[in-house]
Amino acid sequence: MATIKDIAALTKVSPATVSRVLNNDQTISVLEETRDRIFQAAKELGYKTILERRVEQQFESSKAIPGVGILLCQTVEEELSDPYFLSIRQGVEEELLNQGITSTGMFRLHDTGQNQLVRDLEGLIVIGRISEKALKTVSGHVENVVYINHSPNDDLYDSVVIDFVKSTEKVVGHLLEKGYKRIGYIGGIEREHLNNQKMVIEDERLTTFERIMEKEGLFNPNYTFIGEYTMTQGYELMKKALQENDLPEAFFIASDPMAIGALRALQEAKLTVPNDVAIVGFDDIEMAKFASTPLTTIRVYTKEMGHAGVKLLVERINGRKLPIKVTVPTKLVVRQSSGC
């Protein structure tokens, strides 16, 4: 790389004069011919001033920042009623900031209709469940896609997921070990929102719960109550369960907000947790440990899921072709609500 001294030697001018001319020092008095000679020599030698290098670095840096979109598969109401997906999104936004990526767009699936997303995106992070067909409807032009909390095709897309099957096995195993036999399930319906349609998606928590209980010879379909993933629905579904003559002695409730609503219904019925009814939730939101009876629950590392998703997308944008699926572990957090 050429230096000031190289230019000075070529033009027969002092290094100090060369430096002042190249940096546009207006106080220096020098012949125009000399000034031209210095600039010509600098050009021939490939010399760049500090200002030129700084501008070039800024330009290259701006080019290197990819346009990344975040596609949210939940409505605003769904995200606000259950912090699970909100926490994943916050993790995504934190890691985008850490990576210096600020040129992002945010879209909600139910708002896109048949319109495709912004076409200059280099990558897309999908939070929630959406079929490949629906994704191509709104983003068929985006090459680099990472799914979080869903993996529609391991051979094509990067994804970050948790093992709902293993997590549910931890919950049911814990309740069985505590000696509970009549175990109920309260859960919600996951839907895909597109073009004003709502397609119901299989929930592995429910199917795994049914499989284990059937294997143990303990499954009772009358103990299953399904609604929406909201605190209000948790309250209403537990009220419905209380109206039945045969109340389960324990419940696996598929989200903490629903579990907190269910706790309220039990309190109103003058039943205590866990003495009358035991409860295990799912997510370990912050409120879980501060509930009237602190919740035993499955801890899901949602922010870490968001971080991992961004890192996978950056690798993809930088050229990695092989799709990678990351399974983030969960943890059973035992508190008072299950009788411990």
From TrEMBL:
Organism per entry: Neobacillus ginsengisoli
Protein name (database record): LacI family transcriptional regulator
Pfam families per the UniProt record, alphabetical: LacI, Peripla_BP_3
Lineage: superkingdom: Bacteria
Lineage of the species this protein comes from: Bacteria, Bacillati, Bacillota, Bacilli, Bacillales
Keyword Iron: no
Parts forming coiled coils: none
Residue ranges constituting the HTH lacI-type domain according to the UniProt record: 2-48
Signal peptide: none
CDD domains: HTH_LacI, PBP1_GalR
Keywords for this protein: DNA-binding, Transcription, Transcription regulation
